[in-house]
Amino acid sequence: MKTSVARLHEITGPAGRLEAHLLEPEPVLGGEISSPRSAVVLAHPHPLHGGTMHSKVVYQTAKALSRIGCVTLRFNFRGVGTSEGTFDEGRGEQEDFRAALNVMVDRYPGVELWAAGYSFGAFIALSIGVLDPRVTALIGIAPPLMDKYDLSEVTRSQKHKFLIHGESDELIPLKEMWRFYGSLEEPKELVVVDAADHLFDGHVSEVGDAIEDLLRDYILNTDQ
């Protein structure tokens, strides 16, 4: 194989078929695709506000993870795109995410499992990932730090936590992110993208850069 390829276009969720896209690691020198360093499930923003697995930040995050040797599964929550079912206020979406984790465990046995998401998807990924003993790392991009989204379990977790936030996020002020970050147990890391809003307009590539920097260092340290 000489390029990254998508081999999976749908998975089975609790409410029916879920549209999905699997991105394998980029090939190493010589054209071979290496075994994945980790298997990542990546969740998209709020379905009622236009969020899909094709959101720019989600797409660039998947590409960045591919560049550092990860295989990434992004999917549309129930009721989004061609996924069956209807929006379930986060409850069913958490079960969708759990189903995607199961797919990755079955498909890549023995490979380290990470949970990642952007905005609403970060809430879903962090909430499920923190409770699933198979998940070793949590990645949250602009998580919705609002009262209706309970992330208290995350504050008590000793799993590796990686956060990315926009300096000018108009929905979640940076001071709220710093407050949340301060409540987290180690190990944890936060990257603030200068001048970026909640959508990271004009700064999407910087999200990819931050993902590469954070997770490449993590991989190097854990492989030693």
Describe this structure in words.
This protein is α/β, with parallel strands linked by helices and 224 residues long. The protein has one domain (10-223): Rossmann fold (3-Layer(aba) Sandwich), CATH 3.40.50.1820. Helices cover 33% and strands 23% of the residues. It has six helices and eight strands; from the N terminus they run βββαβαβαβαβαβα. It has helices at residues 56-67, 91-107, 120-131, 152-155, 174-183, 204-223; strands spanning 10-13, 16-23, 38-43, 70-75, 112-118, 135-141, 160-166, 188-193. It has an eight-stranded mixed beta sheet, with helices on both faces. The chain is globular, with a radius of gyration of 16 Å. It starts with 9 loop residues before the first strand and ends with a helix.
